[in-house]
Amino acid sequence: MSHVDVPALLRDRLTTLIAATRDAERRIGEDDPEGVHDLRVALRRIRSLVTTFRQELGEEECDALRLDLRRAGLELGGLRDLEVVEGRLHQLLGEQRVELVLGNVAGRIDDHVRALRAEAAPAVDTLLGSAAWRTLLADLDVLAERTPHARRSTARKRLRKDWRRLRKRAAVAAMTTDEHLRGNALHDVRKAAKRARYAAETLGPLFGDDAARLEQAAEAVQDALGSHRDTLLTRQTLRDLGVQAYLDGDNGFSYGRLHALEEIAAAAYLADYERVHERLGKATVAGWLG
User: Fold this and answer.
1) For residue 1, is pLDDT > 70?
2) Could you tell me the pTM of the whole model?
3) Most buried of the four, 46, 85, 207, 287, by CB within 10 Å?
């Protein structure tokens, strides 16, 4: 795969992600339920790209863009997290036997989600209607027109750095016993897995199956820890619902049951992570990086 033009590869990747960003923005305006999720993913991939390849793309420009991309992602995060929690709650509820659902649980969930959406949705509208958003898109367009200073050897070096960062964070998490600190450490692992995954994804045309194995291993880590995080958000919502039900004089049994089921799911996701993160150090996955 040595024939691949590395500068063109990075430039084309950035152009593709900018197009995905604009498409997701359009679909949000059309009330596409997946629009916010797709916009977050596109921005996250761009942020990863300009972080990993900041020296090749231009350090000063990339550092400024990273901050703007992070702020935009945070503005979108509240609504997307709510959508994830809503989906998990209704799936959980739909799996319960009728006699285990006491009270108007579905109605209380819908009311709770509706109230939170009314708080979170304006942030998305404000972001997409802001001058800062238009400036961000314009800055990305300018960056995409530049020719990155990149070679095959430096691309490999950047990927190796991201992969080692992921392995180091996984090692720190494995040695952390305090529950709160371990939660933070696993959050860092998840972020590092995203970055390594997206770097491998970008460099797939250059490194072929070798990059694909890295991407798959990092994605497995990201999926396990991402699902675990989703249970944390869902459990907090269930606790809030249970407390409010109690204060209203309603039966809180069902919320406690769903909370317990999410605890079981969380433990299963962590077990998945323990299995998949062992692949990070295997020679068959990353030995070629050196």
Assistant:
1) no
2) 0.90
3) 46
